[in-house]
């Protein structure tokens, strides 16, 4: 498995040179997490990763076909989302205010990086995360971390910020 630091060494120069800036075009549902709550992020093509919440974290649920959920720390959540209204099931609706920079992991890029069409890396929260051919590897604008967004869910939730 590729470490987060090694993945950043490999992909951040590519993202800086060829990446495009994107913004979320769909709102999300979110709620405060329970400490030690476990979440499996399940996209349309299977389990992407898992994570365990710490005190103050948020559970975010995307409005995609898969309805995938993930955990965000309080500070990142507050930086990236603004409250809209209460919703059902203990969730509230939020608008994304953040942007990402990303690249599509096409066959040419995978070959250049020397990786197979499907590989695992250590996500910023310490768990394994899978990336598959034609998915996107993305980073916040501060280049602090790299994570995967599955292809189908990427196009359901992001548009290029021109």
Cα end-to-end separation: 34 Å
Can you count the helices? 4
Helix content: 10-25%
Global Rg? 15 Å
Kindly state the mean pLDDT as a whole number? 96
Instruction: State the domain count.
Output: 2
Number of E-state strands: 14
> Which band does the percent of strand residues land in?
35-45%
Low-confidence stretches: none
H-E order: HEEEEEEHEEEHEEEEHE
How would you describe the shape? globular
Q: What is the topology, as strand order, of the major beta sheet? A: 13-12-9-1-14
Largest sheet, described in full?
5 strands, antiparallel
Structural class: alpha+beta
Secondary structure blueprint with pairings:
Layout: H1 4-18, E1 20-24, E2 28-32, E3 38-43, E4 46-52, E5 58-62, E6 69-72, H2 74-80, E7 81-86, E8 92-96, E9 99-104, H3 107-113, E10 118-122, E11 128-132, E12 136-140, E13 147-149, H4 151-157, E14 158-160
Antiparallel strand pairs: 1-9, 1-14, 2-5, 2-8, 3-4, 5-6, 7-8, 9-12, 10-11, 12-13
Describe the structure.
With 162 residues, the chain is α+β, with helices and mostly antiparallel strands. The protein folds into 2 domains: 82 residues, no CATH class; 71 residues, no CATH class. 22% of the residues lie in helices and 43% in strands. The strands form 4 sheets. It has a 5-stranded antiparallel sheet with strand order 13-12-9-1-14. A 5-stranded antiparallel sheet has the order 6-5-2-8-7, with helices on one face.
Summarize the structure.
It is built from four helices and 14 strands. The protein is of the alpha+beta class and 162 residues long. It folds into two domains: 4-23 and 99-160, no CATH class; 26-96, no CATH class.
């Amino acid at each position: 498995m590729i470490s987060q630091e090694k993945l950043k060494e490999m992909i951040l120069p590519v993202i800086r040179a060829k990446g495009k800036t994107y913004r979320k075009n769909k709102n999300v549902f979110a709620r405060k997490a329970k400490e030690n709550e476990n979440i499996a992020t399940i996209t349309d093509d299977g389990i992407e990763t898992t994570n365990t919440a710490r005190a103050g974290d948020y559970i975010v649920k995307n409005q995609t076909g898969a309805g995938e959920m993930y955990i965000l720390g309080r500070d990142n959540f507050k930086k990236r989302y603004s409250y809209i209204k209460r919703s059902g099931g203990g969730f509230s609706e939020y608008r994304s205010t953040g942007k990402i920079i990303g690249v599509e992991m096409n066959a040419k890029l995978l070959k250049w990086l020397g990786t197979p069409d499907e590989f695992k890396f250590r996500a910023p929260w310490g768990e394994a995360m899978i990336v598959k051919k034609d998915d996107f590897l993305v980073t916040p604008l501060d280049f602090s971390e790299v994570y995967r967004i599955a292809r189908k869910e990427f196009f359901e939730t992001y548009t290029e910020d021109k």
